[in-house]
Amino acid sequence: xxxxxxxxxxxxxxxxxxxxxxxxxxxxxxxxxxxxxxxxxxxxxxxxxxxxxxxxxxxxxxxxxxxxxxxxxxxxxxxxxxxxxxxxxxxxxxxxxxxxxxxxxxxxxxxxxxxxxxxxxxxxxxxxxxxxxxxxxxxxxxxxxxxxxxxxxxxxxxxxxxxxxxxxxxxxxxxxxxxxxxxxxxxxxxxxxxxxxxxxxxxxxxxxxxxxxxxxxxxxxxxxxxxxxxxxxxxxxxxxxxxxxxxxxxxxxxxxxxxxxxxxxxxxxxxxxxxxxxxxxxxxxxxxxxxxxxxxxxxxxxxxxxxxxxxxxxxxxxxxxxxxxxxxxxxxxx
Length: 334
Ligand SMILES: [Cu+2]
Prior knowledge:
By secondary structure, this protein is mostly beta strands. It folds into 3 domains: 2-44; 49-215, Immunoglobulin-like (Sandwich), CATH 2.60.40.420; 218-334, Immunoglobulin-like, CATH 2.60.40. The protein has helices spanning 2-16, 26-44, 153-156, 320-324; strands at 56-68, 74-85, 88-89, 104-108, 112-119, 138-139, 164-165, 170-171, 173-179, 186-191, 207-213, 222-228, 233-239, 245-250, 254-256, 261-268, 274-278, 283-284, 291-292, 294-297, 302-308, 313-317, 328-333. The strands form 6 sheets. A 5-stranded mixed β-sheet has the order 3-2-1-5-9, with no helix packed on it. A 5-stranded mixed β-sheet has the order 14-13-12-16-21, with no helix packed on it. A 5-stranded mixed β-sheet has the order 15-23-22-17-20. Helix 1 packs antiparallel against helix 2 (26-44). The chain is globular. It comes from Nitrosomonas ureae. This is Multicopper oxidase.
């Protein structure tokens, strides 16, 4: 779209000139031709490669029951069954297990996504009046119509938009369509909205993130996705080259090579306000020229920044109650 709209702008500019071509000397015409050529060349440098622009993603997730959380509660987790980008199978970059956090899905502005959810939680297809057993995918940031909201009918007024027995509808698999429109670049959470209540089971482990990159974004050696829960970080890392996702779980140890360029994606879940610190590091506060060494982040806020990995340290939440709960992890530079 950038490419298509730009030549139109160029046309407008030339047509908008009150002089007709006969009024313009040959010299001026040559000048205009050179400018137009330079403009076309500079714009064509912005044209992305086919694999990163307007790609079609076909994604299949399941939601599964995992281990006991230590208090007799079963946790739930998303698992990537299949991810194809314009037909290319990239499923091997994800864990073969259901993980908390769920898979991080990397997209580029301009992409289109068809993403389905299958419910693999035992007993999910037997309706119980007043209780939803559906699981869904409700995403933030990207565009979609009401049928892809991933909520129950009591919220969206259309359907119970998930897999399993809902309050009214029962589906084995439910598919959503996302339009990764221009202007949606950023890191956004997705989560269940339908399990047991209309608020869903994000707190039981059904959450993940999408990273929407602008076209032509610089690449990073590692990406760390850290969710700030009310009592722990949940996180994972992504190798910038192989795109393999690893080190999932609570307060994960994040690993980097010395002098590599790494990017942190912080997403706050739950209800607490956090003060994130990466001790010994400073970074640019996005949208400003300020260098900061910690950041306050509240429910559903996000903060994305990059640093050059120099020294091993710890990341932590400096808010007293969260600090007392041990909300911290290692950042190992090797
Ligand atoms: Cu949400």
